[in-house]
Design goal:
about 160 residues, alpha/beta, Ribosomal Protein L15, Chain: K, domain 2, three-stranded parallel β-sheet, 6 strands
Length: about 160
């Protein structure tokens, strides 16, 4: 017999308790012997701790809004002077200016731009776009590159 040949239902029926001794879940029906939790009708609140102050009530709340969006990686325009020609996320990553090429990059104005750069990243401030044009380069807004999975990379290597 193989594992995939087993005839097992994915959804089991709920165990019916309190149906007599011979049924297996009789008498106390899995609630123990005595006490507050064995009684019917008495439901405890989710945070009830026997009258003690609940821990979730004692801890201060985090107020405000917490964004789940990862902030863009910042590159300053004066760092672009070390690069020339076509510059994208991967070039900035190889130069050590950003941590990963697979997150959004925004170029912010600081200092002067002297190099002619054809910049292709996710964002740049208006003053940076003007500085790039003034230096003779171009700016193009592109989508964030998506990391290729190891499975896709292996398939691409076998096709070559």
């Amino acid at each position: 017999m193989k594992y995939n040949d087993l005839q097992i239902s994915a959804n089991r029926d709920k165990k019916r308790v309190g149906r007599g001794i011979s049924a297996g879940g009789g008498k106390t029906a899995g609630r123990g012997t005595k006490g507050q939790n064995s009684r019917t009708g008495k439901k405890l609140r989710a945070m009830f701790q026997g009258g003690q102050r609940p821990l979730a009530q004692a801890i201060p709340k985090n107020r405000g809004f917490k964004s789940l969006r990862t902030p863009a990686q910042v590159v300053y325009v004066d760092h672009l002077n070390t690069l020339s020609g076509k510059v994208d996320n991967f070039d900035l990553f190889e130069a050590g200016m950003i941590a990963t090429p697979f997150h959004a990059v925004k170029v912010i104005a600081r200092g002067e731009l002297t190099a002619k750069v054809d910049l292709k990243v996710q964002g740049a401030s208006k003053s940076v776009q003007e500085a790039i044009k003034k230096a003779g380069g171009t700016f193009e807004k592109i989508a964030t590159p998506i990391k290729q999975s190891s499975k896709e990379a292996a398939e691409a290597d076998t096709k070559k």
